[in-house]
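anyone seen this seq b4? input:
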Amino acid sequence: RRPLLKKSRTISVTDSTTPHFPGPLFPTVRRLSDDSLPPSSTATWPPRRSFDSSDSSTTSNSDSFSSQTFAFSDRDYVYPSFLGPNTTRNRLTVVKPSANKSLRKQPPVPSPVRTGSLRSKSIVSAEGSDVESVRKSSPVLELGSRSDRVVKPVPVQNPVTSLTSSSSLISSAPVRRTNRIRSSLMINLMVVLCLVIGCYAVVLRNEVTKLQVDSLRKGKSEVIESNHILVLGWSDKLGSLLKQLAIANKSIGGGVVVVLAERDKEEMEMDIAKLEFSFMGTSVICRSGSPLILADLKKVSVSKAKAIIVLAADENADQSDARALRVVLSLTGVKEGLRGHVVVEMSDLDNEPLVKLVGGELIETVVAHDVIGRLMIQCALQPGLAQIWEDILGFENAEFYIKRWPQLDGMRFEDVLISFPDAIPCGVKVASEGGKININPHDEYILKAGDEILVIAEDDDTYSPSPLPEVRRGIFPKKVDPPKFPEKILFCGWRRDIDDMIMVLEAFLAPGSELWMFNEVLEKERERKLVDGGLDISGLVNIKLVHRVGNAVIKKHLETLPLETFDSILILADESVEDSIVHSDSRSLATLLLIRDIQSKRLPSKDTSSTPRTVSSFSHSSWIREMQQASNKSIIISEILDSRTRNLVSVTKISDYVLSNELVSMALAMVAEDKQINRVLEELFAEEGNEMCIKPAEFYVYDQEEVCFYEIMIRGRERNEIVIGYRLATAERAIINPVDKDKLVKWSSDDVFVVIAFGE
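predicted toks r here
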C-alpha cells in the first residue's frame, strides 16, 4: 500500500539575531547559495511559510531579500547521514496529475494557496492584489522574474516522508507500468496458450470422433452383444435367411443378428435395406472383416453367440468347402471357446465328413446341393410336396420343436399323440439311447424320465399338453398302398452331385423305370464323372440310364426328345453356370418355356376324360391329376436359385417348383435355432427311413364322412402313420397342424392328407 503524504509544521525562529539552522533532528535544511545570502551575517533566516490550516494569513518578510532570487537549481536537500550520500538534483521532475492515479486520490490539503496549472502565476505585493502562483507538485513560491527570484521558507510536509514517497511514487511509476505491461502480457500469453490448447483439444476430439465414426461406418468397431446369431460370409441366401431368423424371433420381440463378411459395411447395409420384408424387431448389425482372422471374430463377440452360421461362398464347390473348413479351424482356435453350435453350409456331400472331423460335436452341416436334389426328387414323385416343405421348414407356419414335458412320463405314445390341442407329436427323443430322436415310434412306447417330445407347432410357446379328449373310434376303409409302377423321368442339365440323385431315384422308383439324361457333357465323360462320384452304374437295378447330348436352351435339340412321354421332368441348374445365379435362372426359365411350348404343340388339348396315367399310386386324386395336367400331363420341377424368379415361374403355370436357395435358408435357420432338428431333417430327406408323403383321403375316410381331425390321426396310427395336415379339394394350399382338431369336418374322396410314414 502506498504511503500517504502527511502535513508538517515548520518551527519558526525565535531569535531574530541568530540565524537558525535546523540540525539533525529536523527533516531537512534549506540553504541559500553564497550569492543569495543576506549581506549581514546577523541577518535573520526568513520565516517559513506554514501550510497549516491554523495560519490564516501569510507572513511575508521580504525587506532585505526582495532583491534576491531563489531558483530551483539553487535548492539542495540534505538528508540524514543514515540515508547515505545524496547528490543535488538540478531539476525536479514534475509528474502530471493524470500520470499517477494515486496522486489524485490523496486527500486534499487545506491551504490558502489556490492550485492551478503547472505554469507560474504572479504574486502581487501587499499593496496590490494578493494573488499567488504555485506549482501543484512543489511547495516553493516563485516571486518576481527569473533574475529576481527569492526563495521564502514555506511550511511543507515532512520532507523525508513526502519526498521519499513522492520520489518512490515517481520512480516506481515506470516500474508499475512495466509490471502492468508484463502482467498483461503474461495474462494475454496465458489466454492465447489456453485458446491454443483448447483448440488443439477440440481438433483432437474431432479427429477421434471422426475416426470412431469412420470405424463404425466401415464396420471395424467391436460388437458388444451376447446370445446373438452370428452369420459368417455373404451369399444370395442371406436375404431369405435373415427373413426366417426375424420370424423366429418375433415371439420374443426380436433378436440380434450380426453379419461378418469381407465386404464394405455400407454396401451390406444398402443390400439389406433393399429386402422387401420387415425385420419385426430384429436388429441386423454388419461388420467388415474376414472369418479367417481371430481378431475379426473377436470383434463380433464370437464366443458369446448362441449360434454361428457359416455360409457357402459363391464360387466353385470345392473352393467353397475348403474355405468353410478353414473357417471352422478358425472357430476352434478361439481361446474363450464357443457358447453355441456352428451350422456350416456345404456344397459337396463328399466334403462333409472332413468338416465334421475338424469341428467335432459343435458342427452341424447342411449340404445345400444334396438337400435340393432330394427335395426335387420327392416333389417330382409327389406333386405339391414343395409347398408342404416350405410350410414346415419356414417359421411363418408350423415347424418342428423339441421340448420335455414331465407330466407325460409313463404315458403311451398313442395317448401322447392326442394330448396337444395346438401341436402334433411326431416323435420322441429317447434319453436312454443318448438323445436319439425316434420319429414315428410305436404306439406301445412308454415315455420315461428324461424323454422329450418332437412336435409340429406354430411356435415353441404356443402349445402345451391337456387332458385327453374323448375321440370316437369308428370304422374306416382299410386299404393298402397299391404297388409302384415304372416311371420315365428326364434330367435337363448336369449337376455336380447328380450321382447322388441317381442313387436316391434308384431307391424310390419301381423296377423298369428309365432316367433320361440330356446335357452337353459327352457320354464317355459322363460315365467317368459318375464313377468318380461313387456310382456303380452296373449295379443299378430299378432304373436304366439313357444318355442324350444337346443344349437345353436350343429348341431343335429339345424337339429330338419325346417330351410328351415323360412322367416327370427335372430342370437342373447346370454346373457350367452355377456360379452365376442370374445366368442359371435365365437358362432354367428358358428351358422350361421351350418344353411347355413343345408339349402344347404335341398335345394341343387336355384330355381329362381319358384314363389317367399311372404316374403314381395316387394318380386318381383330382388334385394330383390337376397338377399333372397343368403342364400337359408332365410334372415339371425347375431348380430356381433366386427367389425373385418365383413370380416368373408362377406365370408359366407349372405343376410344381422348388426355390432352392430359400429352402436351404429355411433349413439353416431352423438348425441354427435348434441343432437337434438337423437329425429330423436328415432322416426325412434320406431315401431310407421315414419320409413326408401325400396320401389320398380314401385311405382314411369314406366319401362325405363327417369326423374330426383327432379321429383322422387315430386312424392314421392304424397304418403306422402320423397325419400332420390335409388339403381340401376346394383349397389351394395344404394346412399343417390344423386348429380345432375336435371339430367335425365333412371330407371328400378328392381330399388328400399329409403324413409322415416309414418308406418301403
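DSSP finds 19 helices and 22 strands in the chain. The CA atoms of residues 478 and 718 lie 9 Å apart. kinda curious what u guys think
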